[in-house]
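Fig. S4 source data, part A: sequence.
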Amino acid sequence: MAIHLTKESKVLVQGMTGGEGMKHTRRMLAAGTDVVGGVNPRKAGRTVDFDDRAVPVFGSVADGIRATGADVTVVFVPPAFARSAVVEAADAGIGLAVVITEGIPVHDSVAFTAYARWKGTRVIGPNCPGLITPGQSNAGIIPADITKPGPVGLVSKSGTLTYQLMYELRDAGFSTCVGIGGDPVVGTTHIDCLAAFQDDPDTDLVVLIGEIGGDAEERAAAYIREHVTKPVVAYIAGFTAPEGRTMGHAGAIVSGSSGTARAKKEALEAVGVRVGGTPTETARHVLAVLEAGR
């Protein structure tokens, strides 16, 4: 099992014919992802050769869905066009839109995440690495060769820390790894993923990676207390961040005691979550919990 993405997922790539879209489509295909088409109105009807596979280009997401039965789209379009790309995908009835693009204006993210939710489309991102179900499918830019299938679910604001924990826990393996993005507004939250991992029979433990800024981790802690029975291990980035300064992500800003790494750590520990002081220590906590459950 997995959450949100499986080997049956049929993936479109909006922006496939651009430089980043081409590069990462090739990597997704190499990871076993069933990429069934690209979307570019100016290049509709063409095909793009990726090693041993020719991928058709459609003029719209709706055309791609009609022709292929696609249920996932990965968005690699420039920031100015991201809002219209997600709205188009939601109007076409896509089930999952993975928005890799960074630098999208916040008001655009507010608009398209709300619109997609209303239309029944789950958005992951923006400004995220996507998600991977190792051995099955990879939608986004996460390296596919640094881990394997296993019982750990991972949800993270940070792309880099997603990769590091995947590598540190490569011998344990993962059910699904979801990079939700670090912008102030994201379509899928820690809580959304916690709920999905709680219901996934092949996920035995969840790793939650947060960072300074906002109150997402505190809200996740409240949700864990009421709804999550599986063990959760966490890491919070930003213990040394200076107050009042944006750090890395647009959402990572601390004001007073609100949004500090210490406040998030205390909230999580209060509901029984082990919080590592470093990514390596976090990985050790995960392995200890898994070993204790055997």
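Fig. S4 source data, part B ends here. Residues 16 and 38 are 5 Å apart (CA to CA).
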